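queue> holo job accepted (adenosine monophosphate)
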Amino acid sequence: MNIILLGPPGAGKGTQAGRLEQDRGMVQLSTGDMLRAAVAARSPVGLEAKAVMDAGDLVSDELVTGILSDRLDGEDVKQGFILDGYPRTAGQAEALERLLAEKGMSLHHVIELSVDEDALVDRITGRFSCASCGAGYHDRYKQPAVAETCDVCSSTNFKRRPDDNEETVRNRLLEYRAKTAPIIPYYEAKGIVSRIDGMAPIAEVEASIECILDGG
Ligand code: ADP
Ligand code: AMP
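queue> job finished
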């Protein structure tokens, strides 16, 4: 099964995608993670994307579609994928349609997570992750079970994203409203959109997603 998790930054897409990877063996395709890896590797793509990401603007459709297209050719993706952070513009939605047709793949669900704007800022400014395996946490909503130790890999090193500050977050939310939210009707017209209350606790959001994937 192939799905898109759609929602503003901080809505919980990465949290839910990580869990779907563990529980269902689906593959998380986060264009944000791919771009951060390119920045860390100082590749040409990373060098081009870094300043744009630091400002909370959107990287060009061509660049991000290029890295996604390569990733979609991975053998593991055939197990089913979760798109997290892509598409983010009408151009990307059209590019995705073309890519999937070329690769003989289809899209089964678009799950929209809706969350109030103040809660998004609160979630993003409190977000941190394991520096070793990438597992995500929050200062108040999702602490590791043992203080300062990753639940997944026991690492004691954590990191915060440079773009997770209030000023950049506000710009990322503006970008979402202006460029990403308008693509929802495109998928509604295909009859594959389900909307979930992303304000609910993590476990409840998980249960709602399970219900959609199991056809309930
Ligand atoms: P996104 O991938 O959509 O940007 P994340 O999954 O990284 O968002 O979630 C942002 C932050 O909010 C993380 O620190 C995460 O632990 C926390 N979080 C995710 N879902 C919820 C939820 N339903 N309730 C409270 N906090 C949440
Ligand atoms: P995310 O990890 O999804 O919050 O993305 C972090 C940043 O990476 C965004 O603020 C953008 O600068 C960039 N980015 C990630 N995905 C895309 C995309 N699909 N299109 C354009 N820019 C993207």
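queue> Residues 7, 9-15, 123-124, 126-127, 136-138, 141-142, 200-202, 205 surround adenosine-5'-diphosphate (ligand 1) (CB under 6 Å).
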